[in-house]
Amino acid sequence: MKIEHYVIHILRFFGISSLMEPEQYPLHPVDGVTTVNESPEKPPIFPAPGGGSGDNRIKCDYSRMGSDWEHPDSPSERRVWLRNKKTSKEFNISTDYENEWPLGIKRKYHVEILNDTHANWDGVEFHGAKLINGTFPGPWIQITVTNKLSYNGTAIHFHGQRLLNNSLMDGVPGVTQCPIAPGHSFTYRFNATQYGTSWYHSHYSLQYTDGVLGPVTVQGPTSDNWDTSVDPILLGDHIHESAFERYYQEQFAGLKVKGNHVKGPPKMQSILINGRGGKRYLLRLINTSTDTTYIFTIDNHNFTVIEADLVPVTPYNATYLAIGIGQRYHVVLNTWPKHQRNGTDDFWIRTIPADHCSNFDASAGKYLEVRQGILYYNEKMGWPETTESEKVSYECRDEPYENLKPVLPWKVPKLSLDERGELSTPNSTIRLANWSLPAEPNVPAGPLVNNWNMMDYPIWVAYSKPTVKHLDGPFDKHAVVYEVSDNETSHEKWNYMVIIGNQTTDPGQGKNGRLVPAAHPIHLHGHDFALLQQSNKSYVNSSSLDLKYDNPPRRDVVLLPKNGFIVIAFRTDNPGTWAAHCHIAWHASAGLAFQVLETKDRFKDLLKTKPLDVAQLDDGCKAWSEWFNNSQNHWHPGGRFQDDSGI
């Protein structure tokens, strides 16, 4: 059916409109972005599809491939990205993007991480912000990072990027690099081979909660057609103090400090959303929260879901979408012709915290304001009179398992009964516990604090001694290193894991003063994983598993039910050190993470071929040590420097 010509607007409010210009375009040459062509400029060069017009649009440049290729920029051919006019070969939605991709150009970006004491994201002045180029969210992709913070290191992780054979660019302090010292820079170099939308954020302690994050889009085909696309929509939460000031509530919840019981964990105070509108929209949704899984819905509208976590899926329809922390979705907004709107032109956009997967302060109001935007069909822009869409579930759970069918199928090798038995490892179980903080130079061990862990110990990374610099160990038990064997050199080898929730406490009820969420968003770096099973039931034993091997859902963030389990599998074809962690920021800081050291010997050989990257690693660690060893650089000179996991 032909879509009518009408205007749709999405209104930003609660102070968010002041954060950026009316439209935030990708960085482009006039903003200091250098593009490097390795061949004379020739077709195919074209503006990013569906994004309006003007010189500010980023240009897709495949001139290295020769002039025989063309991009069919048509709303009816979104499944095809490039087509060879002579041979009819295509890069399309069915192309195996893990093994074959078109040749683009180099893009060089430079950003600065800045202190900022004048942020106002939700109508309340926020004095603890740390921002990229002075804006929130940060600009729409960048690579070279300069740390201009006063008391923090930093590092940037490009969430969901596979980074094949490029672990040193993963941006995790204590794992893949030392933190970027104040006044110093780090250049992240990698090939962007996956397409879709994701985000980048600081992986230094709780820094992204304070604002160090932004969206990333890699243009490519989609599994359904659409008319126009809009800027990424970031769904977040916010507290009015620095996360570093509130983290003690996670550490000491239920414990006595100076004779008083600490009530915790930290509570969020507002919802944040940014967005704009167009025609028949491709919406790019990203949950960048600290603590909240969201239900996203637009009154009286439905969506067609076409991508989850950079994985194109067979299109399916939904009236609402459950989005865990770190998860991303591409959806096509299905709009109504005028004669079917019953005289209504204005509709609420709602971001609803999922039941028992959020923790908002009571001061936010008895009913937290979930109406975070307005969808307009004309320029009159009145207040909507619509009520919520019908049949919206607020349950904290992933999208239905059976709906997430990857367009590019995987067949995972089946486990024998004996191999299944190896999955029944008790150290893959999530636990709450207490421990004493490790000693630091001139600071004794302690105090006793809370932790989360999933491999017997809470993680605690050593910023000055990242794992990548001592691959042969021995590893401290709190490094929580899980080694994947390198005895098998085949790139078709797989690793299988079961992770068990193990929390029988009723969701939303405290456990010794601590909040147990209905689900943990578990994120694995450097890989998509196949989700062989996801269950709300308690794990019994390996023989009771019902595993799906033929094209199971795959993604890089999955919600682990609190007393259920997940079984995941990933190819061991990406040598390196990779973090895996809960993406509730408070939990990761409290230790809920581990490291995957993948095919160590192959990784050591790979590093010998990357002298530039290794030199940058060494120079960065030297700069960090020089800065860190002068205690006058610290927020508390002579006191404890690191009071969380570092992840």
Automatic annotation (TrEMBL):
The GO terms describing molecular function are: copper ion binding; oxidoreductase activity
Keyword set for this entry?
Answer: Copper, Metal-binding, Oxidoreductase
The UniProt entry, under Pfam families, shows:
Cu-oxidase, Cu-oxidase_2, Cu-oxidase_3
- Naturally occurring in which organism (per UniProt): Petromyces alliaceus (Aspergillus alliaceus)
Under InterPro entries, the record lists:
Cu-oxidase-like_N, Cu-oxidase_2nd, Cu-oxidase_C, Cu-oxidase_fam, Cu_oxidase_Cu_BS, Cupredoxin
Q: Where is the Plastocyanin-like domain?
A: 122-221, 232-359, 488-600
Instruction: Name the family.
Output: Belongs to the multicopper oxidase family.
Entry superkingdom: Eukaryota
Protein name (record): Multicopper oxidase
